[in-house]
Amino acid sequence: MGGKADRTVARARALAKALRNGLLGAGVAPFNGYTYDHVFGTKVGGTIFDKDGFRHTAADLLSAGRPENLHVLIHASVQRILFDTQGGRPRAVGVLFKDENGDWHQAPLSSDGGGDVILSSGAIGSPQLLLLSGIGPRADLEKIGIPVVSENEFVGKGMADNPMNSIFIPSKRPIKQSLIQTVGITKFGAFIEASNGYSQSSKSIHCHHGIMSAEIGQLSTVPPKQRTLEMARTFAQTKADLPRETFQGGFILEKITGPLSTGELRLLSQDVETPPSVTFNYFSHPLDLRRCVYAVRTIEKIVHTGSFADLAADDEYPMEVLLNMSVRANVNFVPKHTNDTKSVEQFCRDTVITIWHYHGGCQVGKVVGKDYRVVGVDGLRVVDGSTFVSSPGTNPQATVMMIGRYVGVKILRERLGTEVEI
Fold first, then answer.
1. Which helix (H) or strand (E) holds 301?
2. Known binding site: residues?
3. Which cysteines bridge via disulfide bonds (predicted)?
4. Contact at 8 Å (CB) between 94 and 352?
5. Which of 38, 304, 357, 359 is catalytic?
């Protein structure tokens, strides 16, 4: 067993090595080694992994805190933020939440007027809760019957996501799935990475489990209530018709950082459990589409370098075949244009998926100030990815955690009136 495992790990590393050499061969240079810095060229590393490959999470930050000061209600569902509007300028005084039994409760701030409600519900949850609480565009709030607490035309606007597309690289031998290790940072605004695919059994293919790793996510372009059984059956049949080789190997993906295409979040109901309407308008800005085309062409150069000769059967799968295979295998519900891979622009539109880099909706300078306090009200801050104007090209988790720590230290300084080390 040990010998087999060692060979599988070696093949997993082979894809990362092939990509590194392929990126350099395609001109994504220089090689910057292991680094946390986002610098042009090819590097090894990540924002939540150290040089020894160990992942660090929010638990590391919590372990340095004082657990006696933290009380977590794991089954509480916040419904809206409560405000005192009697004194002129609205002030957040607590939150209204519902427990696992459906009973309603209030969690008030201390009566001495100190402290803040800190909203950290993410790029979708935070703007949704602000709108439900009466902070947002007046016309949108009045349309759905929500009393206006503070008018702000920017809440829910500027929603964006780093779009991602992937190209399958069938390998001559199965490759063990592993985390992303090598990244190419281009000067045209795209990150190019590789992640090993599945070495799936025939049973897995028969069950239509798909070939996309959970790491790269799924984009449903059809609202859940509009999805049909026939749509699901068609999707499953597409997977069943794919060649066996596509379930063995890996994929090279590209994602656009700092997209200029933006959308918005709108409420559909006063009920917090009703998902809001969210649009990101992927590739609506022509520059984003051009970036995707450049990235796909760069991947084509990478695949044709000698680095992939021992790994992928590129003679059997020319680029046009790989693109068409990727279109057929893609996990979104966008109507596909198979056998039409001459248009890379169309390939980008057909195969776009999310990597969960949602951001916007409560942007700094529009919804919150530089201290992350919500504009127009007191006692309320937003601290999460909804405040980003742009999201990092790599995992945004570390950035979000550092913003939390940064704001926490600022709050301590305000309360203590002293310099607390950041």
1. helix 286-303
2. 78, 356-357, 385, 396-397
3. 292-348
4. no
5. 357
Q: Are 193 and 396 in contact (CB under 8 A)?
A: no
Is the sign of the CA dihedral 29, 15, 246, 236 positive or negative? negative
User: CA–CA distance from 117 to each of 8, 121, 248 (Å)?
Assistant: 50, 12, 49
Residue 55 pLDDT: 73
Q: If you average pLDDT over residues 93-118, what whole number do you get?
A: 90
Does residue 359 have an active-site annotation? Answer: no
pLDDT digits (tens, 9 = 90+) for 341-371: 568 998 999 889 888 899 999 999 999 999 9
- Distance CA(91)–CA(77), nearest Å, equals 21
Look at residue 266 in the predicted model and tell me its pLDDT: 96
What DSSP assignment string belongs to 24-42? HHTT---EEEE-SS--SEE
* Three-state secondary-structure class, residue 81: strand
Structure tokens of 172? 């001559």
Q: Which residue numbers belong to the known binding site for FAD?
A: 78, 356-357, 385, 396-397
- Provide the pLDDT for residue 307: 76
Name the pairing type of β-strands 41-44 and 31-34.
Answer: parallel
Answer whether residue 217 shows pLDDT above 60.
no
